[in-house]
Amino acid sequence: MHTQTSLGWTSPQVLLGILAMAVIVAASNYLVTIPVTTILGVDMNAATGFAFSEYVQWAAFSYPIAFLVTDVMNRVYGPSAARRVIAVGFVFGVVLSLWLADPRIAFASGTAFLVAQLMDVSVFNRMRDGLWWKAPLVSSIIAGTVDSALFWTLAFYGSDFVGWWNYALVDWAAKVSVTVLMLVPFRALTWGMRPGTV
What we know:
Blueprint: H1 12-31, E1 38-39, E2 42-43, H2 44-48, H3 52-55, H4 59-62, H5 64-77, H6 79-100, H7 103-127, H8 134-156, H9 164-181, H10 183-190
Helix pairs in contact: 1-5, 1-6, 5-6, 5-7, 5-8, 5-9, 5-10, 6-7, 7-8, 8-9
């Protein structure tokens, strides 16, 4: 059984996590307006055989980094520190969303973020004693799935946006792909960083 050191709101570790989360939330709120046309010089519409750029925005690739931040905070400093970072990220995200989007989108975005991030912390914590990759992979995939389902349903169910579920599926697939790739920086950032706190 591991014990975590209690970190306050103003501890350098929590402030760094809050800064990282704020940057990711702000970037994702901007990148959601930019469609993905090419990746590493590859025309994604031609490579996938369908209108990829109509379905995927760059935020699908930036947002999973929020789960990386949460998982690193959870692994190294414990769930309490991770929840503090999530709380600030939630407030920051809602304010930005209200400024950049209509109230329904802002509500959907904030709700999905809060529920998914807290679920990520909970699932990660239950699996933290297993192999190093299991907790971040499983918790992020489950939380990312909940995030996509909540956001797209709350934002567009019953709206005039026909076929929103197709966008949701493509968005989810992109997020899961990035989640798997996030195992590399997760391992690099947490390697040897367990100073009696985890």
